[in-house]
Amino acid sequence: MTETNKPAPGMNRRGFLKAGLAAGGAAAFGGAAFSGAAGAGESDPLITEVQDWNRYLGAGVQAAPYGVPSAHEAHVVRRDVEWLTASTESSVNFTPLHALDGIITPNGLCFERHHGGVADIAPADHRLMINGLVDKPLVFTMADLMRFPRENRVYFLECAANSGMEWRGAQLNGCQYTHGMVHCVMYTGVPLKTLLDEAGIKTNGKWVLAEGADAAGMTRSIPMEKALDDCLVAFKMNGEALRPEQGYPLRLCVPGWEGNMWVKWLRRLEVGDEPWQQREETSKYTDLLANGKARRFTWVMDPKSVITSPSPQMPIAHGKGPLVVSGLAWSGNGRIKRVDVSIDGGRNWTTARIDGPSFSKALHRFYLDIDWDGSDLLLQSRALDEHGFYQPTKNALRAERGENSIYHNNSIQTWHVKEDGTVENVEVS
Amino acid sequence: MTETNKPAPGMNRRGFLKAGLAAGGAAAFGGAAFSGAAGAGESDPLITEVQDWNRYLGAGVQAAPYGVPSAHEAHVVRRDVEWLTASTESSVNFTPLHALDGIITPNGLCFERHHGGVADIAPADHRLMINGLVDKPLVFTMADLMRFPRENRVYFLECAANSGMEWRGAQLNGCQYTHGMVHCVMYTGVPLKTLLDEAGIKTNGKWVLAEGADAAGMTRSIPMEKALDDCLVAFKMNGEALRPEQGYPLRLCVPGWEGNMWVKWLRRLEVGDEPWQQREETSKYTDLLANGKARRFTWVMDPKSVITSPSPQMPIAHGKGPLVVSGLAWSGNGRIKRVDVSIDGGRNWTTARIDGPSFSKALHRFYLDIDWDGSDLLLQSRALDEHGFYQPTKNALRAERGENSIYHNNSIQTWHVKEDGTVENVEVS
């Protein structure tokens, strides 16, 4: 793979808007005006039709105190893969990344992953206990927690198994399924450090066990250094209370680390002197290597990216000409420094434009605005984070970790864009 | 009003957490543990109760492809004021600011203001026309617009009439009603400049008329300097398609300027050499002064802030001790530089902590963490923006603009916190 970063073929940026619109369907309009406020002009069948909806009063403001999307967007929903799990209570659905833009995921579209269903918790009855190697064990009500100084932070949350099915080859046809176990919201909560300091950590307290109040009793061990760094005990996401499937009324945020550790329905934090070796950090969420040994405590989600459009669920419908290539990049190490895009399967790379906020351990939105010549493309994106870590190719990842693993597949994804604009999930050697 | 910025009475920050928790209801817990993964301990009635919900499998992932809030949050909805408007189609409801945190407003809670109801538009049939003093009149489909380079920006949107009822005195008891005609989301769209450049602005083109496809045919004149500066033709909010009540499928963003200009269901942009003097910029959305003359084209939303908690809808339920005073500040001029909070009706001011992102022309979240001594408070907040503009007192605003106006009330709001923790909307002289 060369590192030229020169413009790829067909990427002449100058004047593409002028050239493209002729091809792109925006009709030059010969002087007739809407019969609106600015005066009537010649009528046109098209314009007459589009004026129709201003003849009628629309719905009033009381129709939906809590608003919902347009019926025309009914296809933009989380979706599952039926054969993937045995029951809905221990299952997953996927964020429709292909249909979204920017870096904020609407709460109603954040993917779900449960091990014992969605706990139904009355917040007034919920408690958070801190026990173990602390000076003063404590039990907090939700009202207690609301009295500590708060922080607001935007973080991505990615399941360790995101893209796991792709490890052995291109299998799922759409970035919703291949990469949709990630979301990004603004959390409001109390730093975990504040609560641990309140209880007083004993000198031999080196680990924190986070335990959920769900039927699965999700429990994970977190090293004290991380617990005191940037973890949040969060009660709001995107401004409002956590959604039930995201841990209402309380979840732990473990920024940049695998989603399984972001314990939902958080009810207990125990301080100990060593990790607890829970099921979810021994039997599961370890990475089986080719030699039969497993990597353990592989917490950080490495730099990763995916092109969300065009993609298998977002084919090109408009033919040749201007094309917005858009995608997401993220790294558990910090900020994304650069994203490169290839249209020829990784032979040549062009630096994409990152647009919108760049927060540490959050999604980044990138674009490459190209002039598509109508030929086949092998679209790839490659993220580089601020600490110099690159997203690997799938073959490089396999060479290092074998093919037994499910978790922590952060390799480069390839979409095959065909001449008719349809897009397929493929592998390039 | 003095400018001391010294800590106000009762604001001793040191050690307040230790002191406060004893008063605050977090019980010291004497060694018994949950009968969970970490081993069984002595039982406790409270702990037994809170363990109950992990005995049952919760709901599965397919229950709600598009997720909704917990039933326990059913009170967090947009609300209207019944007597305020004659019909629901030309009415308003209000963002529940008191119940939110951070700076992002969830799409389902963004206030609505319509003049002819919510237009029901099929995006495939929608068109945006650019006509008037341009070299090449154009009509765009939604698909055409998706081919231009995009931007992602977080902006507040405030109705010019927000807080309008308060001009003549404290009337509405709750910040949802006094200040709830504001929201803040991340927009994705195409710069208006890009589209105008595509059509080619003639040299005498100095104004742009934005026209909506709703029954009200909302139309506003925008000076070309603003149109070419930071306006966006947006199709997404917080990542997903615009909500119907926010202009689906297309709205104009006019950052920092009054919400009425952010034309929803955008269907036409006409370039002209002077403003159009539309109803919404002559009969309405002008500010009648005491002398009978009206200020016109008062576009910018001046610096403003409000304490969202405690507030009339968010009384203090926990008694004395640690109290999080939280609020929002914003300015149509740019970033918020500082927010001061007073607990004594404006005699002394303490600088609040702004937390979370600080974007130009976006909401800012501030906190003041105090130790409440249980006495009466007269809570106020005062915003200062990066250009040195301060939020005025209500009396200062009246002295300048009289009492005839409804629009552009950005004055300091006062909440009277009583000894029992209830909060009332009051005025201080």
Poorly predicted runs of 5 or more residues of chain A:
1-50
Strand content of chain A: 25-35%
Strand order of the largest sheet of chain A: 3-2-11-6-7
Overall CATH class of the largest domain in chain A: Alpha Beta
**Helix residue percentage of chain A:** 10-25%
Number of strands of chain A: 22
Topology:
Two copies of one chain form a homodimer.
Chain A: H1 16-24, E1 27-28, H2 45-50, E2 127-132, E3 138-141, H3 142-145, E4 151-158, H4 175-179, E5 182-191, H5 192-199, E6 207-212, E7 219-223, H6 224-227, E8 232-237, E9 240-241, E10 251-253, E11 266-272, E12 287-288, E13 294-295, E14 304-309, E15 321-330, E16 336-342, E17 350-351, E18 353-355, E19 364-372, E20 377-385, H7 394-401, E21 414-417, E22 423-426
Parallel strand pairs in A: 2-11
Antiparallel strand pairs in A: 2-3, 4-5, 5-8, 6-7, 6-11, 8-9, 8-10, 12-13, 14-15, 15-19, 16-17, 16-20, 18-19, 20-21, 21-22
Domain Oxidoreductase molybdopterin-binding (chains A, B): 115-277
Keywords (chains A, B): Metal-binding, Molybdenum, Oxidoreductase
Domain Moybdenum cofactor oxidoreductase dimerisation (chains A, B): 297-414
What report would you give on this structure?
2 copies of one chain form a homodimer. Chain A is globular and about 70 Å long. With 429 residues, the first copy, chain A, is mainly beta. The longest helix of chain A is centred in the N-terminal third of the chain and has 9 residues, at 16-24. The first copy, chain A, has a 5-stranded mixed sheet. In chain A, strands 4, 5, 8, 9 and 10 form a 5-stranded antiparallel sheet that branches. Chain A has 2 domains: 97-295, Sulfite Oxidase, Chain A, domain 2 (Alpha-Beta Complex), CATH 3.90.420; 304-426, Immunoglobulin-like. Mean pLDDT of chain A is 88; it is low at 1-50. Chain A contains 7 helices and 22 strands. The first copy, chain A, is 10% helix and 27% strand. At the A-B interface, α1, β1, α2, β2 and β3 of A face α1, β1, α2, β2 and β3 of B. β3 (138-141) of chain A pairs antiparallel with β1 (27-28) of chain B, so a sheet runs across the interface. Chains A, B: InterPro entries: Ig_E-set, MoCF_OxRdtse_dimer, Mopterin_OxRdtase_euk, OxRdtase_Mopterin-bd_dom, OxRdtase_Mopterin-bd_sf, Sulfite_DH_SoxC, TAT_signal.
